[in-house]
Write a structure and sequence with these properties.
Elements lengths: L5 H38 L1
Length: 44
Amino acid sequence: MLFKTSEDGIVLYEMLYLQMGEMAVKIAELFYLSLSFGSFVGLL
């Protein structure tokens, strides 16, 4: 475990989410879409 307690991990995650959550979601969506598109093209 990287954190001594689960609370430390939760607090760190909340801080990171507040700072970069929106950007991370957009990146994850783009990554998922690119993977889905690549798989779709691969099936053709």
